[in-house]
Amino acid sequence: MTVQDCFFENTSTGVHISSGGGIQVLDNAFINNGLFSNYAVVVDGAADYNGVRLLFTGNTFAGGSNGISLANMDALTIANIGSPEVHLPVTDGKTTLTGTVIALSNIDNTTIANFDLSAATFGGTALSTINCDNITIQNNITTDRAAGIFVNNSIVSTISGNTLTNNFNNGINVSNGQNCTITNNTFTNCGNNGNTQV
Fold first, then answer.
1. d(CA 103, CA 39)
2. What 8-state DSSP symbol labels residue 37?
3. Beta-bridge mates of residue 164
4. How many whole angstroms separate alpha carbon 84 and alpha carbon 92?
5. Which of 72, 132, 128 is nearest to 101 (CA)?
6. What share of the chain is helix, strand, coil (3-state, %, to 5)?
7. CA torsion 56→66→115→24, rounded to 10°?
8. Averaged in consecutive runs of 10 residues, what is the pLDDT profile of the chain (198 residues)?
9. The pLDDT value given to residue 36
10. 114 φψ region: left (φ > 0), alpha (ψ -120 to 50), beta (else)
11. How does pLDDT run across 33-58, given as a tens digit for each residue?
12. Nearest to 154 by CA among 133, 136, 172, 173
């Protein structure tokens, strides 16, 4: 399945794909999407088809609330450079999102690294994960978000080397789960609930 060269504007969800294989979401524009607790893009449970499970690249965001929700895929590759399955470059406009930028659910054995998940205008959550085992979150930047990094109910997680600035509620929030290691993160003005809440 391929979704390519489309404009999605003022919708709750632009693209929602559940199951299937060989999914390609290419060169689309998401303008003011992800409204009413929905996400501009939802991919749930992609499977391999002819060597391709998921290819998400060349897409842009302009305003809106929640960005991309990914669920039920093991060892998903997500990066801002190279040729990962999910390519989210610095210039894709995710800083204009006012809700949750990246949400992961049941995404095991995955690394989120070297992203700038800051907000152009104050608000939202940079990264939210739930039920993601063996997840590594490192060397990311989040500035001017209501919250930085949420990790909920993960078994074995590593959160290290992140820079969190002006995150109003807290920089890092870990709840439930076990074996979480939080090291060498830098916090500045991460507010009401403290820098790290566990």
1. 9
2. T
3. 142, 187
4. 15
5. 128
6. 5, 55, 45
7. 0
8. 96 93 97 94 95 97 97 97 96 96 98 96 93 97 94 95 92 91 92 59
9. 87
10. left
11. 999 899 999 999 999 999 999 999 99
12. 133
Exposed/middle/buried for residue 198 (C-beta within 10 Å: 0-12, 13-18, 19+): exposed
Distances (CA, A) of 150 to 30, 97, 126, 146, 187: 24, 17, 8, 11, 15
At 50, the amino acid letter reads N
Largest CA distance in the chain: 49
**Tokens for 193?**
């609930």
pTM over cut 0.70: yes
Half-sphere exposure of 47 (CA within 13 A, CB side): 3
Residue with tokens 């409204």: 35
pLDDT at 122: 86
DSSP code for 195: S
Q: Which two tokens stand for residue 153?
A: 């109910």
CA distance 110 to 134: 7
Distances (CA, A) of 191 to 120, 144, 150, 185, 194: 19, 11, 15, 15, 5
